[in-house]
Amino acid sequence: MAADKLHIALVGNPNSGKTSLFNTLTGLNQKVGNFPGVTVDKKTGDSRLSDTLVAELIDLPGSYSLYPRRADEWVSYKVLMNQDEDVKPDVLLVVADASTLKRNLLFVSQIIDLKIPVVLALTMMDVAKKKEISIDIKSLARELGIPVVPVNPRKNKGIVQLKKALEETAQKLYRPPAFDFIPNKALAADAVTEVKELLPHLSDYAAVHHLINHESFKLDNQMQNSIEEIEQKHNVQHTRLQAEEIMQRYQRIKQIVQTSITETSPVKKQLIAEKLDKVLLHKFWGYAILITVLFLLFQSIFIIAQYPMDMIELFFVKTSNWFSSWLPQNLLTDLFINGVLAGLSGIFVFVPQIMILFGLITILEETGYMARIGFLTDKIMRKVGLNGKSVMPMISGFACAVPAIMSVRNIENQKERLLTILITPLMSCSARLPVYTILIALVIPHKLILGFLSLQGLVMMGLYLLSLVIALIVSFVAKRFIHIKEKSFFILELPLYRHPRYKNVLLMMIEKAKIFVFDAGKVIMIISLLLWVLSSYGPKENMHAVTQKYEQLIAANPSQQHTLEKEKQAALLQNSYAGVMGKYIEPAIRPLGYDWKIGIALITSFAAREVFVGTMATLYSVDSDGGDEQTLRQKMHAAVKPDGTKVYTLATGISLLLFYLLAMQCMSTLAVVKRETKSWKWPVIMLTYMTGLAYLLSLIAYQVLK
Asked: Which CATH number applies to 6-170: 3.30.565.10, 3.30.360.10, 3.40.50.300, 1.10.472.80?
């Protein structure tokens, strides 16, 4: 045991109540990081077991057995096999669902045979009681040879007894069973003996896993070769070995169940879950309810988040104005206000959406409905290379791609996870709405279809549907180019319906907000400052000439100072490096119907798509607040090209709508993709294919409609 602090690892099957127990034991004393080399959350927290003993708990990802299939299961597996350099638990706290104990005991028995000190916590005792299942705790503890403690984290029951059992196990008052749960040497007797001669500290069962997975362990070349020779010498068949082991374990588990578990009712009681599933998984009503739930989820994110987002934006506007009123007007002030504060505003304005989205998703997960969503949509998603777990990130992308991409971690298959990340930004997020609103108002007539359907509203709805269709098509094509041969298994457990534990919901909301602010926020700030530099500086001669010209005009026409200052800003932006870039790319965007001003907007709105409106407001010398929005539309409507033709025709408007629908113009999304994939490769691929697709379809639309 570590001298300063006891280290405890929580392990168990998914949906066994492990997270609830972790939250109860640690409260708010939690930290979230990542396991090295993988995008799997590393949740740790401190818990006081007694007046003299504090334990650090680490919540390992859920696993069904010691034969890992997913990335998160490999994380748990390597910790349990003592292959993780950072996590070395002194005691294992195994969490098992009492209502499905037979299935949970497979994993429990495997851990027992690793000969690490173990305490078993039984959750869902209330559910087991409803199923009329009675568990003899003393008999079960005797049969397993480890402490067994029934707990109810939701009601804080059994926590004191659990802490006492953990402390006593750490003090070696409870020792691992002397005998194996099953005779592991019988699985590969001679091979196990030879592996233990090389590594005497291993248990028999750990030696079995070294035979099967030694290539994935941190062993020197000589040891790897020696184990490989033993494996070949005895012709160890991995699949056969695993099958024999599982059969033997279930035979032993069957004996324990007969001894320690009693089902008082021989006829299975029909639970509420079964009645609900008949409706929620119905081939027609199931999809109707699903669409309703997702619609309400999307609307909730969109409507509820709007108020705190407006408050955050107002706070930063007031803060900027306050600093502007007393700080000296110089370069550092401009950097602080238009660079740093603007960057921070761009970070924190996403926080309400992230917290609300993950709060609602956690409620769906805790109630048990999330698993039903995956079940219903799997057949459709699988046809385009995805699976049922991809639907929630995609739907969440309609609100914001940032938290949606952060939610793909529960997709086990690496290829399907990458495909979901690649297509989620195609969903029409809320940041596109300001662009859609002003462009539709400019180029789509305000009239009714069939007397009650707004044409502008239909176009708006069509943009959302189009984004979904294109995303599915892109996934169907992209699956042929991602050469990952990992097999896809959609093994889904339908948990019982439960009331959400709102403490867990709150903790998840806080955790995800912290991850975004402190991880993705760093990249956002860097790019925000870079954009400020590009927009604030330009070739010295040009910038000086503009400044001198407008100083003379203001001096000659003091009554028009406000208007001239606006024109000066537009001229300075036109001559800045961002403006030069706009002029530079004009030949490339002219076939799409765009001029250099739209080119600048395409560049500046890379920070966030809604910046398009603000950029247009500056370029057309009007304020960008709500009171002047009508003026902005009038100015844009009246804008003409050098040849006298209108800038914003139907063809140009549709082209721009398609470009903003498809183009990757969100540095926050790219930052999160970098974080989730641990590589710049996928953000670059995403930026390239989305920009190319946006350009191609916008070009076709403009050339056809002009």
From this structure: 3.40.50.300
